[in-house]
Amino acid sequence: MVQALIFDVFGTCVDWRSSVAREVAADLPRVDALAFADAWRGEYQPAMERIRAADRGYVPLDVLHLENLHRVADRIGVIAPDSLNAAWEKLDPWPDVVEGLKHLKQSRIIAPCSNGSIALMTRLAKYGRLPWDCILGADIARDYKPKPEVYLAACSALDLPPGQVMMVAAHNDDLMAARDAGLRTGFVARPTEYGPEQQADLQPEADWDIVASDFVALAAEVNGR
Fold first, then answer.
1. What pLDDT, in 10s, does the model give residues 117-152?
2. Distance, CA of 197 to chain centre
3. Per-residue DSSP letter, 87
4. Is 72 in contact with 79 (CB distance < 8 Å)?
5. Average pLDDT score, the chain
6. How many alpha carbons lie under 13 Å from residue 102 in its C-beta half-sphere?
7. Do domains 4-15+90-223 and 16-88 have the same CATH topology?
8. CATH class held by domain 16-88
9. Where do the domains of the chain lie?
């Protein structure tokens, strides 16, 4: 039986795009806030890939976010304050998330398995009232998803075999990597994560252990097993 569920956070648990755009609009009122948020997020994977490829030693995502903030600002010719980096700590949960997590917490261990740092995830949990039992993810593994070490480090920290841990994500590639590492998998689509024109991850692309419409439905299925 699944004893713990670990969660992707950006996109799966929280609406990063609208939330970051809100903070950008407040600090940089003359720029297209949504376009800026998209461009900032667009630097996310390339920055982590340099670490995954061992071209750079591990640094927390907070550092990468700040570097990426200034890279995007320089590209469009504006000056962004360092304080804007805290936008990633103020991301609104999707409407079903807190309720679903509370139901899951009654019977299972729940924790983020995010590329976000422990500091970022802790502040985000405070902001969004996400009721985690603990914080897991990149800082524990000193590497970034989808490297298998990240998923396995979370299982090890919980003293559970991978087969008793379920990775929950709105991203098929995240779940594929988790399954390859031996974890169970749960898919919850977030079809507007990247806005109304999103084209990827609109549906499950494999036979995941659970496919649920939202976190409340996920909790009902997990708790019913």
1. 999 999 999 999 999 999 999 999 999 999 999 999
2. 20
3. G
4. no
5. 97
6. 7
7. no
8. mainly alpha
9. 4-15+90-223, 16-88
Q: What are φ and ψ of residue 202, in 5° steps?
A: -80, -15
Q: How far apart are CA 208 and CA 132, in angstroms?
A: 23
Helices 61-76 & 44-52, crossing angle to 10 degrees? 130
Question: Under CATH, domain 4-15+90-223 is a member of which superfamily?
Answer: HAD superfamily/HAD-like (3.40.50.1000)
Q: How far apart are CA 31 and CA 9, in angstroms?
A: 27
pLDDT the model gives residue 143: 97
Averages of pLDDT over each 10 residues, the chain, 225 residues: 97 98 97 98 97 96 98 97 98 98 98 98 98 98 97 98 98 98 98 94 97 98 90
Closest CA to 188 of 165, 167, 214, 207: 214
